Each structure stands twice: as C-alpha cells, then as structure tokens.
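Internal ticket - ligand job 463, iron/sulfur cluster:
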Amino acid sequence: MPTDTLPPWLDHQAIDKALGRESAPDNAELRDILDKSLALESLSIQEAAALMRVSDPEHLVLLMNTADQVKQKVYGDRIVLSAPLHISNYCGSECLYCANRRGNTTVARKYMTPPEMREAGRKLIRQGHKRVILVSGQLPNAEVEYLEEAVSVLYTVFDGMGEIRRVNVNVGPLKPEEYAILQAADVGTVLIYQDTYHEASYRAAHVSGPKSDYLGRLHAPDTAFQAGVGDVGLGLLLGLGPWQYDLLAVMLHAAHLTRVYDAGSRTVSMHRLRPVPGGGFEVPYPLSDGEYLRCVAIARLAVPYTGIVLTTKEPAGLWRDGCNVGCSQLLTGSVANPYESWNEAPGEKIPFPIGEDCHVDEVVRFLLEEARHLPSFCTACPRLGRSGPEFLSMVQECGMKSQCGPNSIASFMEFLLNYATPYTRQMGEKLISEKLDGLPGPERGAAERLLQKVRSGRMDEFI
Ligand code: SF4
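stdout (structure tokens):
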C-alpha cells in the first residue's frame, strides 16, 4: 500500500457524515446499540456517533453502566498496571504541545545510559512493577539500536524476587527492518499513537520534524505488522483534535487492522492533552471530565476486545471513574524517580518532566478502596508467546476470564507479598478472598493452586 496517500480505511467523509446527525437515539435505538455491545460485537461508527448524542441523563447512566458490563464480560475486574519509563527526551520534531519538542530550550536533555536504565528498572521492580513502556523523543534517525539496547537491558534487570517481564515501546514510524529489530529483541506491544486523526489539527500541532508526517504515521501500524511485530497498540492525545472525530477514526483504524492482520489493536491509549513546561500551547479542543469519561465508555462499547489504557496523570477520582466505565489498563508509577540525576543537569533548566508520579502502592490502595477492581501485574500471555491473532482469538472464543482471572490473582498476590505496605496487603488479601468466593469452581481451583505456589515462595506462576 502506498504510504504517501490517505489510506482507504480512514474515510473522512463517512466520519463527518456520522457526526452530522443531530437527534439523540430513542429508547429502542439505544437499546439495540447497547445490546450489540453486550454481545461483544464491534460497533459501526454510526452507532458510536449515536452514543455521542445521548443527552437524557438516564440514558447516559445506562450507557456508562453498559460499558462497565462489557468490560466485566471481557476482562473481569482486572486493571493491568504498567510503568512508563522515559529513556530520552531528545527529539527532532516540533510538536507544539510537547515539552520534548526540539525548540524547547527550557528542558534539560538527556539520554539514559544503560547503567541508569538498570537503576531505573530496579526502582520500578522495587515498587512491584512487571511491565514497562519505553518512551523517548522522535529523532530524525530513529536510533532503533538505542531502543533495542534499552529493551535488552530491562529484560536482564533483577532485584530481589522480581524482574521486568514485559517491555513495550512507544515509537513512531520505523522502517520494516527496524520494527523487525524490536521484534527480535522480544518487545511486547509496539505502541504507535496517532494522537489525532483530524488532519488539519494534526498539521497545526506538528509543525516540523519526523512527526509532522501525518500520512507516514497513519501507515506505521501496517508497516509494523508487515515486519512481523506481534502486537500493535494505537493511541489518542485527546484535545488535540475533536474527540468525537478521533474516537470514530481510531475505531476505523482498529477495524482495518483486524480485517487485514486478524490482530486488531491490542490497546487504545486515551490520554488527555496536558500543560507542559515551556508550553504556551492552548489545548485546541479541550474535553471536560464528563466528555472524557463518555469517550472512554464509548470506546469500550465500540471495540469490546481492545485494552483501553488511561493514565494516573489524570486526577485520582477521574481515572478511577474511568476504571468503572471500561478502562482495563493504567499507566502509573513512572517514578521511583529514575531521573534524580537529570535534575542536576547544568544550567538550572527544568528537569525532564515526568508524568505518572504516583507510587504503585498508592494506586493499588486507591483501587482497592472500592473493593471491586483487581490490580493485575500478569504477563502470562507474553510468557506463553500469545500475541496478535492468537491472543485475539483466545479472547473472542473464551473471554479473558478463565485463565486471566486466576493468573491475575496470582500476580497480585506476588505483589502483595513482596512489595505492598502492610495496610495495602491486608486490603488486597481480603479482596482476593472475596474474588475467590465469586469464581466458578474450576477457576477457583486453578486460582487456589496458583496462590498456594506463590505463598510458598514461587514467583511468576500462571496457567
Ligand atoms: S515527536 Fe514526540 S517527543 Fe518529539 S516533540 Fe513530538 S510528541 Fe514530543
């Protein structure tokens, strides 16, 4: 497929037409759409657009509750936790909203060295993390070898009883052979955020450098799959373009990936644009908290099998509300500050901005307060080599609960025994015992067998 033309799946006219209707769905139409989601079928963009027009407060509550039910059906109570790790903030692009942009002279620049990566990895492991997402700026020459080295360094860091078991990378467009290098290094999901699919908004915010190539970025997930990458994740930076447009566009993108590669998008990350040091950039299409939650809920209803990823950069109450309307993964705990030394950069510039600076124990405790979300550190799928089409068909055929329920409980117990504060451990053990009571016999048996092994000191147990 040529990469210098608009891909056929991104049908701007169809999106505009779907968003052009004005009337809210009536009872029957709303019920039909929600029933389709409950049957775990993907929605059309017309149906998702209808959900955007829901205005009746009772209908809105129904929409949110149904999103939660869909999430429960596919993922159960699990919220998977991952830590972003910013390894470099050098960047060749000028994206007006980003602190890393080439022209921002108020931040100190840094490449993390392998010993620093090792130390950062240890700090994350000491919090209990098992999953890391590598984040860096986008350089004219992508320096894939640097990323490859970071992946291998992190896979070889151990601290006490723990290690990093899955390393995902957040990258832009690469050459096929570069994606292949990452795949050979055993990366988990390759995350390629489009940020906004709205072409005028994209071009206005990305003024120069590699990321200003709107079309190149749209085609990058295809290149990644064709190069043999197992899992690709998509992402939005909400507020950069109209959220309604971006949500429908990312649905079309995910549908295209499912159609062509049988794998779909493993995740859709949904982060809101936030002010950054050296900023001065006005969010072009700001979303209220209510709109943000509705956007998350509609995404869950529209692409039921896709992981929906939020960040604890959002206010605590809001990301927890997000977990109640369809979010299945949280980014958090970037800092055990791996960048202490970055703060000593010469010239008293503002240190590299770090985002998700909650300690994972605080996040877990906050999730446990509602006694319904089960924090998960599970990495069974990558350990078993399940990715892409194999992962999707497993989820579609039997849902994620039968294996993932017991595996998540075991991974959570591993966290509680080795990393949690006493209070969190007490709350967590209580929750596990309640969740066991709610499991069907075979799953309960499997979970109890795994728990027995973890309690006896065995780690990384899964089925
Ligand atoms: S390419 Fe990424 S890191 Fe660089 S300025 Fe743009 S958004 Fe920031």
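Auto-summary: Residues 91, 93, 95, 98, 100-101, 137-138, 211 surround iron/sulfur cluster (CB under 6 Å). The mean pLDDT is 88.
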